[in-house]
Design a protein that fits this description.
189 residues; alpha/beta; Trna Endonuclease, Chain: A, domain 1; five-stranded mixed beta sheet; two-stranded parallel ribbon; 6 helices; 7 strands
Length: 189
């Protein structure tokens, strides 16, 4: 009886009696806190990994440009021979086409039944639509399933658009650097 009066007194005096929190509410609150903590952890991990990925991508771009700068010192024929060796190390069967009258393909790559016509451009500047057109011509002439253009430079917007529309793969100095890095890391293993 005394406890009822003291509880009523606390209610009217301003002190609310401490009511026990139902067990279900405590479990729900714990689940909410767990989810919030897990979400905060995931966001922090995502930010950290995104930063590391950006740093790695920046490093690859610098590496690609550095490798491309070295490769751009080669003659066109030397560049084609270098690419032949690079793709052989990647497991491709490589065929070099004649240095003149090649119908738009400098290299023919074959791997897993897929044949690829490659137009190689050892440039320091931008490669235009003509290279994409040559690769398409080589693809048709040599009966390939796809065509690539590989350069030590970069591509004009028109070349990129034509390649996108005709499904020609463009490899620039960054992509070339990544490819070289993959091969070098395999050698280290």
């Amino acid at each position: 009886m005394f406890s009822i009066f003291s509880a009523l007194k606390k209610l009217f005096v301003g002190e609310a009696p401490a009511l026990p929190i139902p067990r279900q509410n405590r479990q729900a609150d714990a689940q909410v806190r767990y989810r919030q903590d897990a979400l905060a952890f995931a966001k922090k991990q995502h930010q950290s990994l995104s930063k590391k990925q950006r740093e790695h991508d920046d490093w690859q771009r610098r590496y690609g440009r550095q490798q491309a700068a070295e490769l751009s010192k080669l003659s066109g024929t030397e560049f084609e021979e270098y690419l032949a060796g690079l793709f052989q190390q990647q497991g491709y069967l490589v065929e070099l086409t004649p240095t003149s009258g090649d119908y738009g393909a400098d290299l023919l790559l074959t791997k897993e039944g897929q044949r690829i016509a490659v137009q190689a451009k050892c440039y320091t500047g931008s490669v235009g639509v003509a290279a994409v057109q040559e690769a398409l011509s080589g693809m048709a002439y040599y009966q390939c399933q796809s065509a690539w253009v590989i350069t030590t430079g970069n591509y004009t917007n028109n070349a990129v658009e034509l390649a996108r529309q005709s499904k020609v793969r463009l490899l620039d100095s960054n992509e070339l650097g990544k490819l070289i890095m993959q091969i070098e890391s395999k050698k280290g293993d």
